[in-house]
Amino acid sequence: MDERIIEAAQTGDINLLYELIATDPYVLQRIDNVPFFHTPLHVAASAGNIEFMMEMMKLKPSFDKGLVRVKGREDLTPLHHVVQTGNVDLLIKLLKVCPEAIEDVTVRDETVFHLAVKNDMFEAFQVMVGWLRRSSHESADRWEEKLLSWADIDGNTVLHIAAIRNRPRMVEVLLEHMRRDQINAKNLEGLTALDIQSQYPWNERQADRIIGAPLFRQRHYVWIYFCVSRIVS
Question: Could you report the per-residue pLDDT of 187-210, keeping only the tens digit for each?
Fold first, then answer.
């Protein structure tokens, strides 16, 4: 594969991309046939070159269903990269053209939801949860049940990570969509998300916002009790 296309992806140089295509009309076609791990699509996504990435997908539709799910370094897919950068427009496009990509996990068994929480991409997180709820895909219900309670290599669910990273808004969203047994799941250290939260208490303002949520009050009184008793000044 021509290394200049990697250079173009790294810099987001769309003009160079078209120069390469003019010189070699089959330059994109050969990408499908090369067994490599870090595709130009991965490179563009991780570099935040969204326009370049979308241009490649427009020029070669097979990227949508194929390379969107190709795993690169640490088993990261282009969707994983996009979630980490928080580009909601591209996130929606990728979910539309390849909804199955939401199932892919990293080498650490992290889902797109783990990554959104770790990188504090609340809008992307909300979009994905909402997409699961509204999607007409036949697997949407199964994905919602499976992915929101999925445990990574350390046994941490998305809720565990939200507690560790002090993400109260994400905790609130998760609690609205998880069963009691999922909420009380333990990681490999034998800790629930509530156990972890006791080590990383929220500040008073954050706790007040969560406690004020009606659905939270009604369905998750254990967390309310914890927040009330653990408020810090």
Answer: 999 999 988 877 765 544 444 444
Angstrom distance (rounded) from CA 64 to CA 95 = 10
The pTM is what? 0.75
Q: Provide the CATH number for the domain around residue 74.
A: 1.25.40.20
The residue that leads in pLDDT, 58 or 184, is 184
Name the domain count of the chain: 1
Please choose, from the candidates 38, 43, 41, the residue with its C-alpha nearest in 3D space to the C-alpha of residue 60.
41
Q: Which amino acid makes up residue 88?
A: V
